[in-house]
Write a structure and sequence with these properties.
There is one protein chain. By secondary structure, this protein is α+β, with helices and mostly antiparallel strands. 39% of the residues lie in helices and 27% in strands. The chain has six helices and six strands, in the order E-E-H-E-E-E-E-H-H-H-H-H. The model has no long low-confidence stretch (mean pLDDT 94).
Length: 202
C-alpha cells in the first residue's frame, strides 16, 4: 500500500535538486511564495520538482517530472521586488502522486522513495571506487572541482549519497540530471553516472 505524504509543492524552472544537495534559487510566483510561507510556518518539508518547460506559468501534473525531492528550507530572503531567494537542503526522493490543490499554493500527495537495499556489496564497493576514480580524473581535467569538495566526496560511505553528490557536482543538463534522479537503484545510478563522467571528461 502506498504511504502518501501531503505537502506544499514548488515547481522549479531551469534547475533541479538532488538529495543531500544545497540549492539556492528564486521564487516569484504567488503560489510558490505561499508554499514557502506554509512550509516555514509549519516547520515542514516542501516538495521541489522540476518543470519540463521553463516557460509554463501554471504547470499541471503533466508539465512536471515524475520524481522530485523533499527538502527543508534553510533560509528565506525577501527582496524589495517581491521575489524570494531560497536556500534549501535536499532530503529524500519522492514520486509525485497527484496535485490536490492549487490555491493558495500548489499542494501535492507524494510517495517518499525508500533507497533500495544492496545485496552484492563486493560489486557495490567496486563500482563506488571506480566512480570515485573517474570523478577525480574529471576534477583534474576540468578544473571545476575544488580539492575541498574532493576530500568531502571521498569520505562518503553510502552508495546512494555518493551517486547523488557527484551527480550534483558534474551533471549540468536538466534532462540528464532528471534521468539520474529517477534512477532509484543506487548501483544502476552509479553505472549511468560513470557513463556521464566518461563523456564529460572526454
Amino acid at each position: 500500500m502506498k504511504r502518501l505524504l501531503q505537502i506544499p509543492m514548488i515547481p522549479l524552472r531551469g534547475t533541479s535538486i538532488f538529495p543531500h544537495m544545497v540549492l539556492s534559487f528564486e521564487v516569484g510566483r504567488e503560489r510558490s511564495i505561499a508554499a514557502v510561507d506554509a512550509a516555514v510556518e509549519q516547520d515542514s518539508e516542501v516538495f521541489l520538482v522540476t518543470q519540463r518547460d521553463v516557460n509554463c506559468e501554471e504547470p499541471a501534473q503533466d508539465d512536471l517530472y515524475a520524481v522530485g525531492v523533499l527538502a527543508h528550507i534553510k533560509q528565506v530572503l525577501r527582496t524589495q521586488d517581491g521575489v524570494l531567494r531560497i536556500i534549501a537542503q535536499g532530503g529524500r526522493r519522492a514520486q509525485l502522486d497527484s496535485i490536490i490543490a492549487i490555491d493558495p499554493y500548489w499542494e501535492a500527495t507524494v510517495q517518499p522513495v525508500v533507497p533500495a537495499s544492496i545485496d552484492d556489496k563486493v560489486r557495490a564497493e567496486a563500482m563506488a571506487r571506480s566512480t570515485m576514480e573517474q570523478f577525480e580524473n574529471y576534477a583534474t581535467v576540468s578544473g571545476r572541482i575544488s580539492p575541498e569538495v574532493l576530500v568531502s566526496v571521498s569520505a562518503i560511505s553510502e552508495y546512494d549519497e555518493l551517486a547523488d553528490t557527484i551527480s550534483a557536482q558534474v551533471v549540468r543538463k536538466i534532462s540528464q540530471r532528471q534521468q539520474l534522479l529517477e534512477t532509484l537503484d543506487p548501483l544502476e545510478r552509479l553505472e549511468r553516472l560513470q557513463d556521464v563522467l566518461a563523456s564529460e571528461t572526454d
